Amino acid sequence: MSANRYRKDFSITWDQIHRDTRDLCARLYPREFKGIIAITRGGLIPAGLIARELNVRWIDTISVTSYDHMNQGQLNIIKPFDPVVGDGEGYLLVDDLVDTGKTARAVRELLPKACFVTIYAKPEGRPLVDECITEVDQDTWIQFPWDMGVSYVEPLVDQFNKD
Ligand SMILES: O=P(O)(O)OC[C@H]1O[C@H](OP(=O)(O)OP(=O)(O)O)[C@H](O)[C@@H]1O
Ligand SMILES: Nc1nc2[nH]cnc2c(=O)[nH]1
Ligand SMILES: [Mg+2]
């Protein structure tokens, strides 16, 4: 699928993702987890924050690739999780977001009993996760702070006085 299905942008700051992840942890507490499996790369930052809030020390990853920036391609699992995780019972599976649900569906099949959480969710993928904090429209591209930088913005009057 191509990038032109996205019509809106939703930018998330570091503060915002930190707050949202803490809100997610408040929903999960007092559940205890044997460990966390982060879906890399996007799941790594929320997984680290969740591990700190819920005091989880055992952390593993499953590495899934499918997007080249906004263009969705073939899904590949390029690194599996530790077999000790079994069917995922007692483990927390974490990703930053669920969009079409393609990534979530592939990982869910491998870990059907894990508790699966994302911070952000779009409607097509929402049914695949157990918890999320913020739901955004399907045609919205979520911009994460790790993909952005702070840059100069021209004053409004100068933007309008150009022509
Ligand atoms: O629901 P879907 O349509 O499958 O999209 C969701 C996935 O897309 C992003 O990962 P991406 O493949 O861009 O890789 P990354 O985590 O390494 O950035 C995001 O982190 C999710 O894992
Ligand atoms: N950063 C980012 N990655 C994605 N991968 C699939 N959907 C998205 C999105 O909305 N934002
Ligand atoms: Mg990802």
UniProtKB/TrEMBL annotation:
Keywords: Cell membrane, Glycosyltransferase, Magnesium, Membrane, Metal-binding, Purine salvage, Transferase
Signal peptide: none
Residues engaged in binding 5-phospho-alpha-D-ribose 1-diphosphate: 41-42, 95-103
Organism: Terasakiispira papahanaumokuakeensis
Enzyme class: transferase
Subcellular location: Cell membrane
A Pfam family it matches: Pribosyltran
PANTHER family (alphabetical): XANTHINE PHOSPHORIBOSYLTRANSFERASE, XANTHINE-GUANINE PHOSPHORIBOSYLTRANSFERASE
Residues noted as binding Mg(2+) in the record, renumbered to the chain: 96
Reactions accelerated catalytically: IMP + diphosphate = hypoxanthine + 5-phospho-alpha-D-ribose 1-diphosphate; XMP + diphosphate = xanthine + 5-phospho-alpha-D-ribose 1-diphosphate; GMP + diphosphate = guanine + 5-phospho-alpha-D-ribose 1-diphosphate
InterPro entries reported in the protein's UniProt record: PRTase-like, PRTase_dom, Xanthine_Guanine_PRibTrfase
Protein name from the UniProt record: Xanthine-guanine phosphoribosyltransferase
Topology in the lipid bilayer: Peripheral membrane protein
Residues engaged in binding GMP: 99-103, 141-142
Pathway field: Purine metabolism; XMP biosynthesis via salvage pathway; XMP from xanthine: step 1/1; Purine metabolism; GMP biosynthesis via salvage pathway; GMP from guanine: step 1/1
Residues annotated as transmembrane: none
